[in-house]
Amino acid sequence: MPGDASDEREDVQKKTFTKWINAQFAKFGRRYIEDLFNDFRDGRRLLELLECLTGQKIAKEKGSTRVHALNNVNKALQVLQRNNVDLVNIGSSDIVDGNHKLTLGLIWNIILHWQVKDVMKNIMAGLQQTNSEMILLSWVRQSTRNYPQVNVINFTTSWSDGLAFNALLHSHRPDLFDWNAVASQPSPVQRLEHAFNIARQHLGIEKLLDPEDVATACPDKKSILMYVTSLFQVLPQKVTMEAIREVEMLPRHTRVTREEHIEVHEQHFSQEITVSVPQGPSPSPKPRFKSYAYAQAVYVTSPDQKRRQVPPQFSETVEQKTFSTTRMGSEMDLENYQTALEEVLTWLLSAEDALQAQGDISSDVEVVKEQFHTHEGFMMELTAHQGRVGNVLQVGSQLLTTGKLSDDEENEIQEQMNLLNSRWESLRVASMEKQSNLHKVLMDLQNQQLAQLADWLTKTEERTKKIDLEPLGPDLEDLKHQVEEHKAFQEDLEQEQVKVNSLTHMVVVVDENSGDRATAALEEQLQHFGKRWAAICRWTEDRWVLLQDILRKWQHFAEEQCLFDAWLTEKEDAVTKIRTTGFEDQNEMLTNLSKLAILKGDLEMKRQMMSKLKLLSQDLLVAVKNKAVAQKLESRLENFTQRWDSLVQKVESNSKQISQAVTTTQTSVTQTTVMETVTMVTTREQILVKHAKEELPPPPPHKKRQLLVDSEIRKRFDSDTTELHSWMTRSEAVLQSPEFAIFRKEGNLSDLRERVNAIQREKPEKYRKLQDASRSAEALVEQMVNEGLNPDNIRQTSEQLKSRWIEFCQLLSERLAWLEYQNNIIDFYSQLQQLEQTTITAENWLKAQPTPATDPATVKTQLEKCKDEIIRMSTLQPQIERLKAQSQALKEKEQGPVFLDADLAAFTSHFKQIFADMHAREKQLQTICDSLPPAHYKETMNTVLLWIQQSETKLSMPQVAVAEYEIMEQRLRELKALQSSLQEQQKDLNYLSTTVEDLSRKAPAEVSQRYRSEIEVILGRWKKLSAQLVEHCQKLEERMTKLQRFQNDTKTLKKWMAEVDVFLKEEWPALGDSEALEKQLEQCTALVNDIQTIQPSLNSVNEVGKKMKTEAEPEFASRIESELKDLNAQWEHICQQAYAKKAALKGGLDKTVSLRKDLSEMHEWITQAEEEYLERDFEYKTPEELQRAVEELKRAKEEAMQKEVKVKLITDSVNNFIAKAPPAAHEALKKELDVLITSYQQLCSRLNGKWKTLEEVWACWRELLSYLDAENKWLNEIERKLKATENVQGGAEEISESLDSLERLMRHPEDNRNQIRELAQTLTDGGILDELINEKLEKFNTRWEELQQQAVRRQKSLEQSIQSAQETDKTLRLIQESLAVIDKQLTAYSADRVDAAQVPQEAQKIQSELTSHEISLEEMKKRNRGKDAAKRVLSQIDVAQKKLQDVSMKFRLFQKPANFEQRLQECKRILDEVKLQVPKLETKSVEQEVVQSQLDHCMKLYKNLSEVKSEVETVIKTGRQIVQKQQTENPKELDERLTALKLQYNELGAKVTEKKQELEKCLKLSRKLRKEINSLTEWLAATDAELTKRSAAQGMPSNLDAEIAWGKATRKEIEKRQVQLKSISDLGENLKTVMKGKESLVEDKLSLLNSNWIAVTSRAEEWFNLLLEYQKHMEAFDQNLANVTTWMYRAEILLDESDKQKPQQKEEILKRLKAELNDIHPKVDSVRDQAMHLMTNRGDHCRKVIEPKLSELNQRFATVSQRIKSVKPFIPVKELEQFDFDIQKMLEPLEVEIQQGVNLKEEDFNKDMSEEDESTVKELLQRGDRLQKGVTDERKREEIKTKQQLLRTKHNALKDLRSQRRKKALEISHQWYQYKRQADDLMTWLDDIEKKLAGLPDQKDEQKLKEIGGELEKKKEDLNAVHRQAERLSKDGAAKAVEPTLIQLSKRWQDFESKFAQFRRLNYAQIQTVREDTTFVMTETMTVETTHVPSTYLAEILRLLQALSEVEERLNSPVLQAKDCEDLFKQEECLKVR
User: Fold this and answer.
1) Beta-carbon neighbour count of residue 476 at 10 Å?
2) How far apart, in Å, are the Cα atoms of 1425 and each of 333, 1411, 1429, 1437?
3) How far apart are CA 224 and CA 333, in angstroms?
4) Which of 532, 537, 1146, 1919 stands the most exposed, by the fewest C-beta atoms within 10 Å?
5) Can you say whether the dihedral through the CA atoms of 1830, 1834, 1836, 1842 is positive or negative?
6) How do residues 1641-1691 score in pLDDT, each as one tens digit?
């Protein structure tokens, strides 16, 4: 039915829109909505939705009344209006009232704006389309074109089979599923389910639709549109115009759904308005009306119109009417009439309510339309029910005419008919009046709409004309402003479109007179409006297309113009920076030439850009048609042309200037290279000029020549020639690179080689091009000759190309050969560098060697290492020889670089020098191994040192600090043991001292001094150690005594406190024992006094402990502190306990007295109550006495209850006291309290028991009286019945009735009588009212027996009258028997589960029998109804009818289906299984795979519920029918089961749906969270990698500005990403709310992401700050540099001007400039320091940037300073002569010292000679500079300059020599100082011995002579050692240094020997021999012995040396090389053989 379809569509939209809204809320973590209509009524949730969509915070009303709700909704509507959301006839009250239709319309408009519009706006703008639905349909059809099963033509029926969704997904993502498998699925629901699941799992689209809602005949269009838009948002959005045109050509259906009709996009403008008149019934004969719909092209019927044509209940009404008529015709009775009347009255009441609910007529046209349609449907429903009202009235009239009704029934029916007729007429009149009012108001409002539309059309047409007159432009910004204005115009059009849409359903009221004329006039008016509307829409679209086209062209031209402008500016700056003169070297010249060549190539390549700009401007001007724009564009192009020509001229000029500068160069290689480059550039210029000329459009030639120029051959020839010249130009630029002019020692030539090889590889192809060009040239020449034209130009071009090709090939060959030769040089230097590195390593090793040690092991190790180094150096000799041969080959092969020989010679010299130094080192080490101390001395020394070190280590530990007493005892024992060990080591120390004394006498002074200082150190440590031992022992003993005393005092205090603690912890006495409490209080007071007495002792212990803590170890100090803390804490605790106990005892004593008083008072009251109420006896003789006793006990009970409060207070007081008292005091208090409570409870219990007993007695008495009254009443009834049946008149029925009544009365139970006897016995046994009770009981029994006898007699008399009723009873009995048989049969069927459908014949038979019995009983009832004696018969008939009803009930059960129970249980089982699976759907993981698995399981449950839904509904429906027809024994139970089944299904459905939504939300959030985290993590990783890459380079980056720009961009990106991080955090929070207990899983992911974020952002911030620091330093340097440069520029200007001024003015200027020069010097030095700092600390790039600036600054500043200082004063001739004399005087000693060479003198060891004469030379050079400036004679100036140069050269050479001598002196300084010390010692000894010899008496003392002779013999060895040392120094180049001292020493020795010989002539020969052996004559080259007299000792030494030499030679033989070191046996054999 239409109404049901509309409701179903409304439900679908509600469900779909709810899911969409919840999806929006899920993005921001908002709470979901459950009921769309109710949740939006207060406006809060609507505002929250708008907050999510707009991203703005919106204030909400805090109240909850209707006013607050209306304000919230009004705010929401205002927000929607500000966002241009279409709101047609939607008011705040509609939403607050929960209007379903308007609420859905509002949500659809929101979805349309934020979902469809936002997604489609870009592609709509790109395609210049305004119909979003058409674009979306085009996209769908284009995507599903390859699927023959799918044909999408709309958004309703084309989607119901599910294939369209799957095809759309598969076309873009074929990897997700198999299409054939999906297409083969039989059910549309399965296909839809598959598509929705795929979209959700892989595309992240929420499941907004349910398959059951789509798999219908006509799905909801809005829901499908929304879902397809979601797919469009995530899938590729490519739509072609062909697809759009295909959709436009689709056939349009004349009848579509209402949604398709009203769906008009905001930018889709209807261009036609038509009218049509449908035909429909009219509910009344009033002026008829017609509904008119005005649509875009065709008339569309809405569901509202369908509802008016076919009323919602029309079919049902017709059926009911037919059935009612049939039924009333066949059964014309009162009961059927009443039923029909009730139905009609019920409907009439609902209709009146419906009319009343329509409310007042609105002033809104759309609302009035809706009211009109609603009322129209109401009128049609009224018409449909009119027949039913007439039928009821007709039936009532028939009943009145039959005459079978009573008067009352007739009157009642007449009143009912009058009421029905009046109410029907009132309803009809009110409906017609309402309809008329609606017509009038609606027409007025519609006419107002038409008038407003006409006014708007007029204004808009004028507006379009005004816009057409305005020109476009003249600037791009103006054009953009015009585009924005047109957008505003489009928005106005869209807003008016809403009003036009409201004309879609117009209602026209037509009376009998006007009729068709009104329709025709309206049609004509609307057609006119439609044409005007269509014209405006077409103009809007055409102008939009025009503006977009012009805007695109203008933006393109502007972009190209800006790029060309920037390129021109860049090239102009580049030309300006190219230098044309003043080159420093050929490399700079070549660099500038290369720049010019590259610049010309760029100009050639960019020439076509000018033509492109002209074409773009022409195209733009054609579209714009604006003279102002044309003038601006022409001026800009003219400017570009001028700048282009100027740039070309500058390049040509610079080329000529550089060519002229070639002649100034002197180097032949450079000159050749420059000339080649100039030639190349010139050639390129010619070619470019030629090409430029060829590109210019030639003048119009003759027709014949035009054919030649345009021929294919000429084009190909020109193309080949241009390409070859261009290729050779580029290649020559590479081959003539400055890199080929210089040979390199090292470097990577791979790049250069690759470029040359690339040219070589391209050469064959280009050669083929050359041949093609030659053939084309020949063909052109032949053709031109045949045409009579001059071919010289072609020939010349071809010849130039060939000659250039030959030169190019030669150049390429030369460059390839050069590369090969350069590679050989690099290989040579690679080997040389390796050898040099090895030599430098050896030199560094030699320099790093320490002074020869005195330790034997160390000396031997040094000697072995030195020999190994010598062997390793010897292995380099063959490599050096090969390197020499390779150098010779390089020189012979080609004219190689001169640095080959120099570098090889330098290396060879260096190698020899290092090799000789190593040999000298070896000899020196070999010499030192003679005088070393004995081994035992070393061992003893190590032992003593080790013991001292161990002892010092022990003493360094805290030995005397306070610690545990046992530890201190142990330490004292260790110190005593250490003192004993000290005495034991004294022996070794004495041995060391003796040995050192011996060594000091024998060894040299240096060695003896070393050992002496060593033993002195040991002795000092020994004495210090002894003193420390004594001191430590004394301190330790003192502190041990103090510690022991402290510990004893502490123990005493603790013991006392422990005893006190025992006393304090003793249990308290019983609270009732006051004497014990007083005694304990006295003890506690004494304890407090003792505490005050002991307090000073505690203070003393604390002082001692604090003092010890400062002297104790940290651990023991903390322990002492802890003990003191514990002691003080325990003391405080004891004090507190003592004072507290004293106070507690005092308080306890007071409380005990008070408590005892309360207890005694309570005991007294209990005793008094027991005596008064419980111990007194009572007697009750009358009821009044009994009643008074009950009341008295009740008062006593209430008094006892009042005392309960006091007992509770006493109990609380005792418990509180017990809680604070010690356990010992608990017993007595608890016992006394228990006694009190027990007594009180017993009293209450006894009082309560006695009161209850009396209450029960009183109740028994009252009950007895009631039973007696009841029985007396019954006896009264028997008495009356007996009187009534004395004389019974009538038939059997009356007799039977009397008998029955009597029998019923006599069947009175005996219970009351028995109860009376029991109650009486109970009371009399208790002695209560016994006399009164016995009297009443006797009277009652007597009366009862009498009446019982009378009744028995009366029964017997009545039974004799019953026989007359037997015949009637027989008939009734037969019926009863038949019913019993049927009952039995039905029971059997029920037991066998057989229903009526299985045995239809038997069921028919039973039904007929039951019908027959029913008729018989009715007939019997009718026959006996009017008779007086038939009452009893009628009662029997009633019984039979009741039995009949029971059997009929069983028969209805028999008609119930047999398998119903099984189906019911099966449904219950399935639902129970689903219920068991629901707990598994709880969210337990954040991983989307797990959530997806749970969601799949949930969807399975959802599917199970969907599948069982129909079965549950069927079972419930069948069950309801069974209950309604009473086909079950227990309808209530079945109804409850059905209700439970329904509730269970609904509950499970709600739970599963809720879980599905939760899981979908969790899945969506987790998927989005993963996506966002992955995106942010990837960005962090990329940023981190980029940071690592950028920060890897050392120092300042090469492009600082780019790096800073990147840093700023990164900072901005971080700020943007901060929002993403916040979004991720919000997602995490939302996901945590869904996880419910699993938040830690999300927290881990977020914490990891946050840590990565912090790490990367902090790195980026640090890098950016570093870059800013670099920039700051560079800016500071540039600023300082600019200041200095400004001063230099000003100084140059002043100097230039001073040349033209007078001498006086010039002198002033120079004076001022000199002063400024002195001031600017610090600034220049500061700039230099800053530059050096930056170049040193900021990397290579910074050096490259700053070094040229610094060099330029130095050069320019030097020039300016020179000019300022170049004042030329008068120079006298004497000053020149003095300068010549001084410089000549200085040159002579320099020349003498230079002649000395590198031979060392003694001064070289004493001081550094390199700075000597430095100041004098510097002063002379400065004098020379000053003289040069002052001398005007050029010749004299040249002489001074020559002398300065000679002095500088000589001085530099001397400095080098001095440096070499100083270096050599430093190397042998140790040997020199040793030599000097030994020589000085000998000279001192000679002085002493000469004095001693001179002091001998004349008479010779033989003993003293022997002593002197002995000393002389000893000193001979020292003299020989001095001579050996002198010999070694002479070999090292210090011959001149040692010569004076050695000559003096030799002379002194000879003189002494001469003197001593006079005293001992016998020893003269020996002394002479010694003298001859040790006397040498030193020369410059080597030492020569004067005489040599070998002795036996010397001969033996010579033989040993010779033997060692032979052994060394064998060891160095090839047989014993390192390769055989593994075979030791072989080496041993070799040695033996040798």
Assistant:
1) 15
2) 20, 21, 10, 11
3) 56
4) 1146
5) positive
6) 788 888 888 888 998 898 898 888 888 888 888 888 888 888 888 888 788
CA 1360 to centroid of chain Cα atoms: 108
Rounded Cα gap, residues 108 and 1042, in angstroms? 97
- Residue 1351 amino acid letter: A
The residues, ordered by sequence, that sit 6+ positions from 1297 with a Cβ below 8 Å of its Cβ are 1431, 1432
What CA–CA distance (Å, rounded) separates 964 from 1044?
Answer: 10
Does position 150 have pLDDT exceeding 80, yes or no? yes
**Percent helix, strand and coil across the chain, each rounded to 5?**
80, 0, 20
- C-alpha gyration radius of the chain: 66
| Total residues found in the chain within this entry | 2034
Of the CA atoms within 13 Å of residue 1203, those in its CB half-sphere come to: 22
CA separation for the pair 2005, 2008 (Å, rounded)? 5
Mean pLDDT of the chain: 76
Provide the greatest CA pair distance for the chain. 211
Residue 1105 dihedral angles phi and psi, to the nearest 5°: -65, -40
Is residue 474 reached through a cis peptide bond, with omega within 30 degrees of 0 on the bond before it?
yes
Whether the CB-CB separation of 233 and 456 falls below 8 Å is answered with no
Look up residue 253 and give its DSSP letter. Answer: P
d(CA 85, CA 431) in angstroms, rounded, equals 37
Measured CA to CA, the distance from residue 546 to residue 1364 in angstroms comes to 117
For the segment 1709-1730, what is each residue's pLDDT rounded down to a tens digit?
878 888 888 888 888 888 888 8
pLDDT level of residue 1987 (50, 70, 90 thresholds): very low
Q: How many Cα atoms occupy the beta-carbon half-sphere of 1863 within 13 Å?
A: 8
* pLDDT at res. 663: 39
Pair 1579, 1617: CB distance under 8 Å: yes
Give residue for tokens 């899981």.
1559
Whether residue 46 contacts residue 40, with contact meaning beta carbons closer than 8 Å, is answered with yes
Span 1734-1756, average pLDDT: 84
Q: Is the dihedral of CA 110, 112, 115, 121 positive or negative?
A: negative
CA 637 – CA 648 distance, rounded (Å): 17
Contacts of residue 487, defined as CB under 8 A and 6 or more positions apart, other chains included, come to none
SS (HEC) of 1849-1895: HHHHHHHHHHHHHHHHHHHCHHHHHHHHHHHHHHHHHHHHHHHHHHC
CA distance 437 to 429: 12
Residues 1102 and 1091: their CA atoms lie apart, in Å, by 16
β partners of residue 506: 292
- pLDDT(1035) > 90: no
Residue carrying structure tokens 């003896």: 1008
- Distance of CA 81 to CAs 109, 166, 1603, 1995, Å? 11, 38, 47, 127
Smallest CA-to-CA distance from 1614 within 1642, 1644, 1586 is with 1586
Distance CA 427, CA 349 (A): 10
Contacts 24+ apart (CB under 8 A), 421-427: 421/393, 423/348, 423/352, 424/348, 424/386, 424/389, 427/348, 427/351, 427/352, 427/355, 427/382
CB-count exposure of residue 958 (10 Å: 0-12, 13-18, 19+): middle
Question: DSSP state, 1985?
Answer: E
- The amino acid sitting at 1944 is Q
pLDDT at position 768: 86
pLDDT above 80: residue 1342: yes
Is 0.90 topped by the overall pTM?
A: no
Give the C-alpha separation, 1151 to 1068, whole Å.
Answer: 14
- Looking up tokens 């409570």 gives 1237
**670, 661, 714, 721: which is closest to 691 by C-alpha?**
721
Neighbours of 1448 (CB within 10 A): 20
Q: Which residues pair with 1112 in a beta bridge?
A: 962
